[in-house]
Amino acid sequence: MSQTHSAKPFLSAFNDSIVIEASTPAQKRALSYATTIEMLFNQVMSTKMPADRIIGQYFREHKKHGSKDRRVIRETLFGLFRWWGWLKQLQAPQPHVTWFRQLTACAALEQHKWQDITQAWDTIAAWTPTEVPPTNSDSINDKLALFMSFSGLTDCQLSDLLPSWFWRTCPVSPAEQLAVVEAMTSRPPIWARVQSIKAATAIAQLNNAGVDAVASQYFTDAISLGNKSINLNEIETYKQGHLEIQDLASQVIGQVCQPNADEQWWDACSGAGGKTLQLRSLMLQQHPQSSGSIIASDIRHKPLEELNKRASRAGFNNISVAPWKSDALPVNANTFDGVLVDAPCSCTGTWRRNPDMRWLDDASAVSDKPTLQLDILTRSAKAVKSGGQLVYATCSLSPSENEHVVEAFLAQTNEFELVPVIHPFTGGSCSMLTIWPQVADSDGMFVAKMRRK
Question: What is the pTM of this model?
């Protein structure tokens, strides 16, 4: 927090009822940013549309913003959602003062570098001057101490940074709570998967292009691209089909499936086909002339069109699509060596990348899904041939969407049995696998593997 405030407040048409003068270019920019960010924040909260979609549409419609403008607006907006569990507790006599206090607190917690802007916000925030030492620590406990110091609040808790319904539906042991909160309030790296070339080759190409790419210690085809924004369309490795953006936890699913080169697989809920492409890549890694094939299905046509584009860019053959058109299977029953059901879910495991979703959803995001998930899993299981694999996955951290669905499925049939899986990041064996975000700096993910007897 800056402790130096100008004697004269400034603001220019911040809203219909408040007018404050701006006397410097930095102050004018700060007010413009504040107005835009407030508009976007309120739009996300009122429409409950994803923040990345809202801000993407805004930038497409307002091309006047340069790269710095976009960075300030984007990073502040997502930072507000990341720390909203604390920021919403701030209060001031005037609503606009509350908003500027939230902006300055967010900037301090995020360690934003644009000091001219944050100092301008700080002036309007009119904090009571206190000795608040700056912190460059990433420790969540240090950030809590910082926030309580300049806010004057004394009852803030680490658990406030996630909604109360999360703790009820995604049980976390007391020993792990700190690590979960710390992970959920930090930004994971951009994880990618290399296909058709060696990871070392891809890393060298990316480094030459200015991308901070490093190898993963867990999978030979997984690499981290760091935390900086990347324009993929300017990266030759991507344009040539040798790189797919896929979180490390998501890559676990394909590794658990481990398809053989000559097998026939069905990706029953493929979306835009990230895991479809991973399955095909794993087949081709075993044999360049792999005869295996994958059929991808989804109820939406646009993602399947995107899959076809991605498969074409990668030069992958033996991938086809079969949209779900009704409750009937879009593929033949008793046919596949493996069926992957990456079911629709609450997506609580992706909150690191989408911090707005924790405040847009409520407990129904979890409770509404298990019936649908069990129905999809039950239908899709009919496509597995004798001895074949059935893999169920979600990006949820809630047992009701994960273990409980698998247990309900196994309780209604004696044709399938669980196959133990090895946790790729700890090496331990487990009957069903939940990847927590803090374990390998990734998203959260669940996967269970079954075999048809």
Answer: 0.92
